[in-house]
Amino acid sequence: MKIGIDKIGFYAPHLFLDMNKLAVARDVDPAKYTIGIGQEKMAIAPITQDAVSLAANAALNILDDKDKEDIDFVIFGTESGIDHSKSAGVYIHDLLGLNPKARTIEVKQACYGATAGIQMAKGHIALHPKSKVLVLGADIARYGLNSGGEATQGAGAVAMVISADPRILALEDKSAYLTADIMDFWRPVYSDTAMVDGKLSNEKYISFFESVWEDYKVQSGFGLEDFTAICFHLPYTKMGQKALRAIYEQGTEEDKERLVANLEASKTYNKQVGNIYTGSLYLSLLSLLEQQEELQDGARIGLFSYGSGAVGEFFTGVLQPGYRKYLNTYDHEELLASRTELSVDAYETVFEDTLPADGSTVELEIESDPAKIALSGISGHMRHYVHKDKK
C-alpha cells in the first residue's frame, strides 16, 4: 500500500519586508542578505496572526468536505505554540469543522516537528487505510530587531493531507535519522525570541545531513544518480546549497547539474517568505513541485529534515502519475504577489506590537487582515479566533 502526500498547501501573512531595504537600514551590504544568505523578502505576521491561524488558513485552502469527514488524526508540528498544555491542533480542529471522532496533538522538536508528524501519520494509515491525517507545520521565526538572526526571520504555514494511495507524493519506507544533544538553537519558556549559535548550527546541520545521507545509502543502495532532486529544510536558502555541496561530488557532473538546478527551483517560495521553522522543508518541496516544470511523474525526491537541538532525518518520496493536477500553483503565486510591502519603520512597529503577557483582555482589529481566519483577541486568559466565512 502506498502512503504519502495527497494534498499540500501553504499560507503566508499579507505583509512583507524587502531584504534590500532592511540591509540599508541596518548599514549592511544588501548582497549579504540577498546573496550571502539567499533571502529576498521576509513575511511579517501582524498581531492578528499566530501559529494557529496561519496553519488553519493553510489547511482551509486545501480541504474539502470529504477530507473533513475522513481526517481522524490532526498532528501540528510547531515551536511557536500558544499554550503549555492545550494542543494548538485542537483550535484548528474546531476552526476547520473536522470530524469530532479524531485524535489531535501538537508535536515539538524545533524545525523537525512536521516531519515527526508525517512519520506518525504513515503508521496510523498503515493500520487504518481509509483514514486521512492532517499534518501541519506553522511558525513565526523571531530573533529580535537588530539581532544577528533578524535577516532569517519569517512567518507561514504548510498543511498536508497524508493518505493511502496519495495523488502527489508516495513516501518510501526507508529512512535514516539521528539525535544528539546540541545547544545550537533554543528558546527558553521565558523568552519570546530564539537564541542561536549560528556557526555551530550550520556545522551541525551539515554534519547531520552527511551522517543520515550515508546511512540512507547503506539502507537503500541508492546514490545521487537515483534522485531527481533533494529538498532541504531551509532556515535560509543558502543553507541548502551548503549541504548539497558536501555530497554532490559523489555523483557525475550531470547529477550535480540536475540537483543544483532543482535546488534553485525549490528555493523560490522560501526566498520570498523566510524561515518558517517546521514548515520550511515542505515549503521547499512545494516550491520544487510548482516551480520546476520539467519534473516528471515517477521522479524520486530526497527530503532532509533538521531540527536544532538536534534531530535530523533523510527520507524519500516518488511523484505520482498526474500529480500536477492536484497542486494549487496559481493560488500560491497569487498569495505571494498580493502581499503589502512594509517600510522598515512599519515592520519594526509590527514586530513590537505584541499580545499582553499577563492575560489581559484585548480586542484586535481584524478587518485589515485579509486572512479568512484570524486571532480576534484575548479574554479570560483565552485566545479567540474568528473564521470570517462563518460569522
TrEMBL record:
Organism for this UniProt entry: Virgibacillus massiliensis
GO BP, sorted A to Z: acetyl-CoA metabolic process
Domain Hydroxymethylglutaryl-coenzyme A synthase C-terminal span(s) in chain numbering: 180-250, 258-351
Active site annotation, chain numbering: E79, C111, H233
Residues that hold substrate according to the record: G148
Molecular function via GO: hydroxymethylglutaryl-CoA synthase activity
Family: Belongs to the thiolase-like superfamily. HMG-CoA synthase family.
Pfam families: HMG_CoA_synt_C (PF08540), HMG_CoA_synt_N (PF01154)
SUPFAM superfamilies in UniProt: Thiolase-like
UniProt-listed InterPro entries: HMG_CoA_synt_C_dom, HMG_CoA_synth_N, HMG_CoA_synthase_prok, Thiolase-like
Annotated positions binding (3S)-3-hydroxy-3-methylglutaryl-CoA: D29, Y143, K242, N275
Source organism phylogeny: Bacteria, Bacillati, Bacillota, Bacilli, Bacillales
Domain Hydroxymethylglutaryl-coenzyme A synthase N-terminal residue range list: 2-165
CDD domains the record matches: init_cond_enzymes
Protein name per its UniProtKB record: Polyketide biosynthesis 3-hydroxy-3-methylglutaryl-ACP synthase PksG
Transmembrane segments: none
